[in-house]
Amino acid sequence: MKLLMASGIAATALVLVAGPAAADGSVTVVPREARPGSAVVLESSCVKGAKRLEYTSQAFAGTATVSLQDNAGSAHATLKNGLAPGVYEVRGECKGGPSDEVVRSEIVVVEDDPSSGPDAVPAVPPTPAGAPQSGGGGTYQRTDPTVPLATLAGGLLVVAGVGLVAYRRAVRHGR
Question: Sorted alphabetically, which keywords does the UniProt record give (predicted)?
Fold first, then answer.
């Protein structure tokens, strides 16, 4: 038991210490997949006191810059129109301080849908048919009486077995 508890404490400490360290050096891109011409949000941090973070990528229409507060910040970037589908590197450079740190990530550019232009008619969402298949819920009433009867019969067998064992012990010990 002590070994199990010590292992749990060690695993928790490892997650608490390694979790923030694993986040350093990377950029979070939201959404991870996007179409040409769409906007994405870039989030990251610099660990050595930089004042701003400049994000660049061959996929971006320009440089996205953010002023850092508490060493972290997020910026918006727009993907170039007519961009070929593929994976593009996103690079963030920490500037304006003692840091020359570079953080990296990737963005996946998916094929541009010509029907999604400014004049496109939005698709009509499908209309659900029938009732949701979500189970009985708390108001469900069982109408099959065989399950309660089987439970009752099983309980009676257990009580009878315990009674038989008690009777045999009593007879054996002369009570």
Answer: Membrane, Signal, Transmembrane, Transmembrane helix
